[in-house]
Amino acid sequence: MAWNAWLRELVQAQKGSAENLELPADLLGAWQIACRVAAVDDVTLAERAAKHFGLAAADLSRCDSVALRFLPERIAHARLALPVQLDGQRLIVAVADPSDPDLESALRFSAGRDVELRFASPLQLDNQISSAYAQIAERQACRALGFDGAEKMAGDPVVALAAQLLRDAAEANASDVHIQPFPGGGVVRFRVDGLLRRIRTLPRAVCDQLVRHFMAVAGMDSSHLAVPQDGRYEFFLGDHRIDLRLSTLPARGGQSLVIRLLDQSKAFTLSNLGFAPNERNTLQRLIGCNAGILLLTGPTGCGKTTTLYSLLAGLNRVESSLVTIEDPVEYEMRGMAQVDIAPERGLTFATALRSILRQDPDVVLIGEIRDEESARTAARAALTGHLVLSTLHTNDAASAIPRLLDLGLSQPILADALVGVVAQRLVRKLCDACAMPVEAPLHPGETRLQELTGELPARRPRGCEACQYSGYRGRIPVAEILELGAADRQALLHSQFVVGGEKRNAAEDGLAHNTFEMIVSGVTTVEEAERAIGLTFWTGLATALNKPLPPGAISTSLFSDGHDNRLGVLLLAANAASVEPYRVALVGAGYAVEWVASLAEATDLLRRASNIYLTVIDIAAENDAAIQAVEIARHTLAWAGLPVILLVPPADKTLHSVLAEKLPDGFLDKPAAPATLVQRVKMLLHA
Questions:
Q1: What are the φ/ψ torsions at residue 561 (nearest 5 degrees)?
Q2: Which of 86, 223, 411, 626 is an S-S bond match for 658, by CB 3.0 to 4.6 Å?
Q3: What pairs with residue 592 in β-bridges?
Q4: For residues 648 and 624, what is the distance between their CA atoms, to the nearest angstrom?
Q5: What is the rounded distance in angstroms from the CA atom of residue 462 to the CA atom of residue 676?
């Protein structure tokens, strides 16, 4: 506490004695006590402190927003230091404790330039730091929403940005929104059709405030950021009520936030899910049983819950009693009782199920069979005349039986209780607007499929605006259904069931073969089969056809040979030589740099590269239209959500006037020094 000595000295100079003055451990509280004991106001004590250190008094009323970008908010709060002005290459900083021996060097290191210290009251600094950085966050949030510096908007822009993200996610049919930190900012991604898409990057201040806003409205405590938290709330998109389930996780650089979107107006029907006709008929036959257990298996995100709700919707009639036990209830359905389990209150799947059986249900949905108690209770319900629907975490249908045996059920009980097992995956469908016929040269996956089966895929992806350049639009389930026949039940009754024997019809019913049929009919692709099913696509198909694996089938399309972990910068310039000095300087500063010559190349690269976080665009000719340049920066690449720096001809006054209004921090006059560009990149990516 270096400030302790000089603060006592100031009080003693005013009061005549400060020997018995007890000061708290923080400068802010100590300053307030010092003002009270010395019987002076905050301004007077600040003037005497500035004179004591031989520093000029800081004018906090003229805080420059450009200067603020050179010092992160967290350091400003930690050091009680606020940048107030940029004087050439020197940053003027108001500080509350000039006696700190490390202060000036720490500020110089963080700002990347020389600093000049001025004194300000801790009380004024504490208030002004929060206010100044909040204003920056608001301006950045306005810019993220497409508002210019001259435009005004009603309400809090961070709140508006949060609402806009949720609307965009709902309209894109996203299942989740991910907001994750990276050094200096954050990235927003939507999970659409099972895969994440980068939507935009956000400055650090905006990202932090956005996460705090979501936490506040979801009933979480934003003052306890060191522990994971869960929350929920709802919002409306037109007539659609969408439930939001939020989860935060402390991560390096900030809070990782994931928001699950559950559209409560969603219609559940088996015919709309896209099952093949034979699969749909088998499912309808299985749920036609008035007693027994029907299980759905597969990894998280494979659509088990949606299929279960669609089966329930088909059984939901006035004359039937349906009850669900879930953790938690995801979709609200009329005409049935839905129970949220609460283990902390003793309400588990097993205890809830035991009570529910006394409610005289016809159909019971159990969110998951996860332990011996819930397995035995589910079997007891099935044996006493109830139809039980549930999920089990196994990779395929056949593995469900040994899994249930491991949970304590005997083979004879399974013979009476188990109706069938459905293993399910979701594969993305090719976009009908842009899919193209397969033609030479063949892709590696297409070649492997031809070598193994003698068949070629019907179509391959291309990418267009309708599918957000992914080549796919929507998903469809592919299933493997194990329906126990009379021979299987007899084998189970006599404890003679052989695990794996039920795979005898894998050529007709296996996941791999069913997905293969989708590939050759033009619904999906080999790459998507590898993504959804994994290596077992090739091994299952080879087993079904009784053929060896084709060479190279072990290497899936999901594996890439490493990933550049550095923050990436994209240079867009018609001439590589014109930006070569900037490329060298950025690489020397630790950035990964990619150069492209056209907007088409930039679009293609940004679709593939996940580490690009900023774009530099070289406006080569002085007669380039100012509005066109702004449109490139703000709209043409807006889908990537990246900050942009324009390198502009200094003689183009029209361009200057437009950019000064539209993108005040987003342009530099040419020829800008490479070090200046690096500094601007650091300011935008690490603010």
A1: -85, 70
A2: 626
A3: 568
A4: 9
A5: 40
Classify burial at 635, counting beta carbons within 10 Å of its beta carbon; exposed 0-12, middle 13-18, buried 19 or more.
exposed
Are both 530 and 385 inside the same structural domain? yes
Domain interval for residue 59: 3-136
Angle between helices 204-217 and 157-171 (to 10 degrees): 80
Residue 158: CA atoms inside 13 Å, Cβ hemisphere, count? 21
- Kind of pairing, strands 592-596 and 459-460? unpaired
Average pLDDT, stretch 330-344?
Answer: 86
Domain presence at residue 152: no
Give the containing element (helix H, strand E) for 268.
Answer: none
Beta carbons within 10 angstroms of residue 498's beta carbon? 8
Question: Where is 506: in which H helix or E strand?
Answer: helix 506-509
In 393-531 the beta strands, taken as DSSP E runs, fall at 418-430, 436-437, 459-460, 472-483
Longest dimension (CA), the chain: 102
Classify residue 555: in a domain, yes or no. Answer: no
Residue 147 counted as domain residue: no
Question: What is the C-alpha separation between 139 and 289, in angstroms, rounded?
Answer: 61
Are residues 167 and 127 part of one domain?
Answer: no
The alpha carbon of residue 648 and the mean position of all alpha carbons in its chain are separated, in whole angstroms, by 35
The identity of residue 643, as a single letter, is P
Which pair of tokens denotes residue 686? 């690490």
CB 298 within 8 A of CB 307: no
Note whether 53 and 120 are same-domain residues: yes
Question: H/E element holding 209?
Answer: helix 204-217
- For the four alpha carbons of 634, 639, 642 and 646, in that order, the dihedral sign comes to negative
- For 414-472, write each residue's pLDDT tens digit: 989 999 999 999 999 999 998 999 988 888 888 889 989 999 999 998 877 788 777 89
DSSP conformational letter for 550: P
Token code pair at residue 286: 């299985």
Q: Which of 614, 594, 597, 445 is nearest to 516 (CA)?
A: 445
What is the distance between the alpha carbons of residues 214 and 244, in angstroms, rounded to a whole number?
A: 10
Same domain, 283 and 368: yes
The strand pairing partners of 231, in sequence order, are 246
Whether 252 and 281 share a structural domain: no
Q: How far is Cα 540 from Cα 544, in angstroms, rounded to an integer? A: 6
Instruction: Output DSSP code: residue 347.
Output: B
- Asked if the structure places residue 560 within a domain, the reply is no
Give yes or no: residues 183 and 105 share one domain.
no
Instruction: Specify the number of domains making up the chain.
Output: 4
Q: Within 13 Å, how many C-alpha atoms sit on residue 509's CB side? A: 18
For the chain, helix, strand, coil in percent to 5 are: 45, 25, 35
pLDDT digits (tens, 9 = 90+) for 358-414: 888 999 999 888 888 889 988 999 998 999 999 998 888 888 988 999 999 988 899
Query: Do 599 and 531 share a structural domain?
Result: no
